[in-house]
Amino acid sequence: MAGWAHQRLFIMGKAWPTLENSLKGDRQKSMMQNSIIILQSAENQQTLTITPPNTGLSLQGTLNIPGDKSISHRALMLGAIAEGETVIEGLLLGEDPRSTAACFRAMGAKISPLNSESVTVQGIGLGKLQEPLDVLNAGNSGTTMRLMLGLLASHPDRLFCVTGDASLRSRPMSRVIKPLQEMGANIWGRNDNSLAPLAIQGQNLKPIHYHSPIASAQVKSCILLAGLMTDGKTTVTEPALSRDHSERMLQAFGANLEVDSATHSVTINGHPKLTGQKVIVPGDISSAAFWLVAASIVEGSELLIENVGINPTRIGVLEALKMMDADITLENERLITGEPVADLRVKSCQLKGCTIEGDIIPRLIDEIPILAVAAIFAEGKTIIKDAAELRVKESDRLAVMASELSKMGANITELPDGLEITGGTPLNGAEVDSYTDHRIAMSLAIAALTAKGKTMINRAEAAAISYPEFVTTLQEVCGDKG
Ligand code: S3P
User: Fold this and answer.
1) CB 3.0–4.6 Å: which of 156, 244, 273, 377 could bond 297 by disulfide?
2) Is residue 165 annotated as a catalytic residue, yes or no?
């Protein structure tokens, strides 16, 4: 294929040597032929080709996963608006936190380059974000745009414009714009003020008690961040508990919060003194989930995934896999800068189908694509309900998982608010697409490990949004030398 470069891995913005360049002649040919995993690049797109051997593939090893995406965004944002220095260890060096860092740099925060395990943020203080000279670009990141809106709307006398990539520009922003407008915010956007690009004229806001119709940490966090600069008490009540990283980190930085766990309500008192902190970001359980499922479904596998965040609002995936009879044990449980962490050991075993619905959904919202893959290998039927939110993620994850896994032969039906999967049908390799959604790209790669023949995943570069080292780690656990 002219113009394609095999195995060119882009890590931290750097083009690594191509396998073609580093291997010569027959040796190159035979290694490429024996490779399970090949990444090919052309212009800005990558195709990941996975051809598992007919027998004998098992996943082995001890791995570290990248830092938690949600915690990484919050550490950068709170670091930027606090007084003094924040040192972040283990920050996710993916595309999404890079978007957050770029936005806050444009508003005056000094953030060291995102290329090492320790990132330093020199905070500028609450209410001191500067009016940026250009449009803020949140890239692919819903968390960047929605959380940042709460801060921008509450900065009087400053004008901000925010945009994102094609996926983000199609995602609903009214869920945060509406409550911010109730607080007095001035925000304009396309499609009746619901889509980015958005223009925000900062204001002094008034406190509200917002009853959110959806259990969304992005909505909750947006309102709490707006409440930082608002006189009095701002409260958010959500129908079920969503991830609580904002609550934990705001308190650690000095904000005064009242949490009522019985009613899923959080109240923030305006104008706290926020002070820079040291934040150690645990590994992202949403990234660990790919390996939990991979090792469960590839016979003879055993993986130890170290340093995984097990915040109770995030471990729905562990609970769902337990319902499916997965063999997962938690080792070395500990607390690191206010977040619970453990090492997870997973061994392959026969899974069984289950129903995933109700209050657990917000606690595993990002893991539904990979749980759908697990369900293909489970005995009986798995039903996922109450998950209509998946239609407005980086892609319509219900439609995309149903269409792409069907191409591989899975017995999967799209429901209005979920998926129904009957396990036990063997998968065949196929040409599939990530729809530029990182979690779809990685879920399809794990499904491909068990398929007969070759699977090609187009637009696989999306994985770098949350997991830049995904392909390298996949090669390592497969014992694939490339
Ligand atoms: C996130 C919250 C979730 C999740 C997203 C990250 C966050 O979105 O899907 O990947 O960091 O707050 P919602 O709050 O919209 O469910």
Assistant:
1) 377
2) no
